[in-house]
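Subject: complex prediction, re-run

Hi both,

The earlier run crashed halfway through, so I resubmitted it with identical inputs.
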Amino acid sequence: MTFVKPAFRHPDAPLNELGRSRQDYEGGLSTLCAGCGHDSVSAAIIDACFELNIEPHKVAKLSGIGCSSKTPAYFLSGSHSFNSVHGRMPSVATGANLANRDLIYIGISGDGDTASIGLGQFAHVVRRNLNMTYIVENNGCYGLTKGQDSATMDTGSPNKKGDINMYSPIDLARLAIEIGATFVGRSFSGDKQQLIPLIKAAISHRGFALLDVVSPCVTFNNHSESTKSYEYMRGANTDMPVDFVPMRQEITATYDSGATCEVCMHDGSVVRLYKQDNDYDIEDRQSALEATNHYAKEGKILTGLLYIQRDSEELHDVLGTARRPLNSMTEQQLCPGPRFLDSINAGLR
Amino acid sequence: MKATDTKDPEYFHKVVDCQYACPAHTPVPEYIRLIAAGRYTDAYMVNWESNVFPGILGRTCDRPCEPACRRGRIEEEAVAICRLKRVAADNKDDVKHLLPTVPAEGNGKRVALIGAGPASLTVARDLAPLGYQIDLYDDQPVGGGFMRSQIPAFRLPPEVLNEEVDFILDMGIRQHFQSYVSSLKSVLQQGYNAVFIGTGAPRGSDLDIPGRAECDASIHVGIDWLASVAFDHIEKIGKRVLVLGGGNTAMDCCRTARRVGGENVKVVVRSEFSRMKASAWEIEDAAAEDIPIINNHVPKEFVHEDGVLKGMRFTVVDVVYDADGNRELIPTGEEVFFEADDVIIAIGQDNAFPWIERNIGIEFGKWDMPLVDKTTFQSTLKKVFFGGDAAFGPENIITAVAHGHQAAISIDLFLKGERVENRLAPGVTLVSQKMGVHEWSYDSEVSNDDRYPVPHVSKEKALRDRKLEVELGFDIEVAYQEAERCLNCDVQTVFTTSKCIECDACVDICPTDCINFITNDAEPALRQSLRRPAKRQDQDLYVSKTLPQTKRVMVKDEDVCLHCGLCAERCPTGAWDMQRFFYSVTKAGSSCKQSSPSMTSS
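This time it finished cleanly. Structure:
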């Protein structure tokens, strides 16, 4: 048995501004089924972090349970990582983020981990606007336990055996927009041209960023009738291409102004979108909900950056926490002693 | 671009860079795998089938395969292909029972071979088992030709040479040694049905500058001098020796001179170091024996006192290239004198056919070379064929072998009354190597090791004994490690468009970013738009048919593919498969008649 990724890379492979190669952002060799969409999402995260010149040790990747939640082992092996309890990744991410606000938090979850057991935690991390990127690798089934329908499976979509799903699906992107998410995108693992810039924009967003990525399960849910298959997505996907122009890079290309819109992020980076129609205002929740609804009714899936709220208060702003991560403070600062406790208690009497 | 036609045997052949570069197209990865498996005899026979002299070539080949080796494109150095071949030869068992047998009853046709070097011996090897009566003529007392007279024993021990020459001579070859053929006409008059001329390029170039005639006793022509040493006619040379020339003959001359009395031996070359014709490893070996190489010095005169050589004067030059790449040597005005007791001239060799009458139907062209067909090796006199250095000028052993095989095919066709142009396509097989999950029948893991150096005997020992072989060859353990460096380029990545679901798994896993799914375009544009632009034009793009879902195409740049099999490993549908490609050049007497290339796929 030989299943080892060779050490050699293309001799012309470029280095980023940190002098790092893409290889520095890779992880272990995937043990997921061959052809799993999740591996493409991992590859897109690798590309995004490489191109954003992020130091791998400045990233914390967190996950719950499921096929998706195994994937942090397959990218950014130089990063911090926490594989948490089923559906409980948001609490761990919240705790980590409150302790060290300087890291970049990437949460990886699946449709089971987020839309079933973790739905409660998901809703709350959304409304708290925790500064993190939350990627749902959505394949409409529980791949790790032989492919039962998940809560995101569309009504009427048959499973591999042919049984039709009778329940109504949870649309995580629409749910997130409804309950106050400040960045919501939807994409498809088979479309890296859209997915990579979306991940870059999500990482650059200050606040909670959800990416609902349709990521087909080749083993249990990739039959042609399934609405989460490669083939179906290729037909139904109505994509709004995305460009991410990092801060400091001059914007030179010009596009048709009609359906193009540019959104300046808080750090000066620019997200450029090519919208499906002019009336769609991606900074308006109602407009985003209407647009997604409109395409869903037509049996289409609208992908791209669906909604963004540029200036929002993330959790640290709301709580008024210290500017510095706890690990950079002294014991004296962290435990100032009984006098301070007494004064706090006095203030509560 | 049009979809790649993988049914054309040359497409996948070209991917096996080493085999493609080899004039005889020896299936290199195949025998390297056999060496790794410890099957030395089998590895030897794969070689012997193709190149006839594995033990000899494993020591002396010019190795066109190694600069072509893919390994040299992904890291510093190629696989030590040549030295692995020697491992097969050194460790083989008795192979006599595996050699082709000569039929007791001949076919009644007689073929004369003139010259007993690698080209003629290859023709003999191919034709004798078919029942032809072979008469071999050479002016030397034993067979081997230049392999014996020009390659010093410290690079090629006589026992290795004798064994492989005897394999052929023992096929009932009628040997006429020490018989110099002075007239082709007289040979033809003996009623041979065909004649093959493999007499090499026997005339060493001389240097006609002042003092040449006066100092004749101390000035030697390289190839003649090497032959005289090889046959023990010369045993000594002066202490101070100048060797003129920058090719492999010059390297053999200087190293031989070091062994027969030369203490202060210098090589002096007209051109600059980077343009020297000698193989890099031969230059290294000379340097290791304290032989300086002095470049950019053009010989001006032999300096003597009353006919006794004192040394040589050289003009120092700058080498300049014009816009068309033409070289010009511009004197700097400086002159240099080197003392010398002897000078060896090794500045090239020429063909010479004083023994071929010009009125018997063989036409000669430019440079007084016979007109020889590049494919059939037939001359303008239909029953006379040429091969080796005699055909198109000095090359090397492996080229002579390749010529010999092709000439043998022509002679066989000619004597069967068929058209010599009517040659069979190569034999090709393409078979899946998949054995199970993560299981391939080849060792797909890519070794990260650097090339292993071949051990040498100590310089002191080597210089004391002219016949002591300098290179010791790999031992079995190191040979295994070196064999593992081979990337198995003959295990091809084969793509089936109809099975692809465009999941990108292969793109994501490919360590060297070879695989792309993009919109089709003309080749130059396609090369540019790949994830890693395909700069090396001599490396092909593998283009699929249009994919059903997105109407894109799969484009794979063959250039730095590691043949690690991960694309096939991660492919959910088997659209990618690793299939072993075996390409064998058709030999004389092959009876498989077909007009199109054979290709079996599974």
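The longest strand of chain B covers residues 308-321.

- K.
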